[in-house]
Fold:
Amino acid sequence: MSAPKITHEQLREELSNGLTRKAIATKHDMSERAVYNHISKLKATGYDPDNERRHKNPDDQIVKGYSTLHRLMNKEDGSTGTVMEWVKTNVALADQYETARRMLDALIHEIPPAPLIPYLNKPQSKNRFTVIPIGDPHIGLQVWSAITGDEWNMEIADRVYGKVFRRLLSALPDTEEVVLLNTGDLFHADNAAGYTTRGGNKQDLASYHGKWIDAGMVLMRLFTDLCLKKYKKVEFVNVPGNHDDVLGRALGGFMEQLYLDNPRVTVQKGDNPFQYVHRDKVLLGFAHGHTCKIPSLPGKMAADAPMLWGGSEYRHWITGHVHHNSWVQFKEHPGCVVETVGIIPPKCTWAHGAGYGAMRGIQGLIFDKKHGYLPLRVQENVRGDD
Structure:
C-alpha cells in the first residue's frame, strides 16, 4: 500500500487554516471523497473543531467517549463552560478499526480494474434472465470430520465451489442476463480475532484472517468472471450477513472497483440490508434474512418499493441465513413468494450439535420478464467426489 498523501498532523493544520475539503484535495492531489474519509478518521481520534474538540491523540487511538467537567453558572457574570475533558480511547477497537481501514483502503483505492472478458455466447432469449444465489459460503470455516462427519477447510472449499459452480453454469440455459447474488456470510468471521461483529461469537476458523479474506475475494471474482463468459450482462448483488457485517460490505466495495470499467457489470454494494432488482413485471428482493423475519418480508417489499410493487405482477424474495432451501407462499401476502436457498459448506460444530442439517448444493433460477418464475430451476448438489 502506498503512503497516505496527507497525514493527520497536516490535515489538522489545513483545517485550522480554514481550508475547505475541495481546497485540501486540490493542494494534496486527492479526491474530495478521500479528504472526507481522512477527516472522518481524524474526528475518530478526538479532533473535532465543530464541537470545540482539538485533541491530538495518536492515529491508532480511537475515541470511545469523553468525560467532561463543566463549570456551573457563575452568579456574578453568568459564565459557564467546560473546565476539563478526559478522552477515553479504546485500543482494542483501534486495532479492529485499523485492520478494517487498511483492508478497505487497499480494496477500494488500489485494486486495478479487471481486464475485460470477451462475450462470445449467443443468448437463447432476451426476455428471460437467470438468478444465481450463492448461499452463505462461510469462507474460513473449518470443520473436523471426527466431530461432524464432514471435513472442510479453505482448500476443500476452493476445490468444491469451483467444481459445483462450473457444473451449475453448464446446466443453466443461455439467457442474456444473470443476477449473481451473495446472500451474505461470505466470511465465517468478521475480524482478525475470529469473532462476528454483530453477535460477538467466536468461530472455528481454518487459517489466518488474511488468507480467508483473500480466498473469499478470489472466489467471488471467479464466479463473476465465469458468468461474464456465459452472460452478456452481470448484476452482482451483495447483502452482508450476520457473520460479516464489516467484511461483507467490503466485498461490495471490492467488486465495484474491480469491475468499474466494465460496462457489462453492475454492482449493488450492500449498504442496505434489502436489495431489489426490477425487470418489467418481475420484482425481486434480496436479503440475508437475519434482520427481518420471513413472514414480514412481503410487507417490507411493499413498503420499500410501493411503485415497483404496484407495477409488477410477480414478486419473489430470496434469502440465505437458514442454510436450507424452502419455498413459502404466505396466505396473508399471496402476491409474493419468499424463498431461502441452500449452501455448499457442511454444518459447523455448533449446527451439528444442535441437530441441524440439509442437502448441500447451489441453485439457479430462471425468470421471464413478463411471465415471472419459470419451472426451469437447476440444482447442483455436492457430490462425494467433489
In short: The chain has a mean pLDDT of 78.
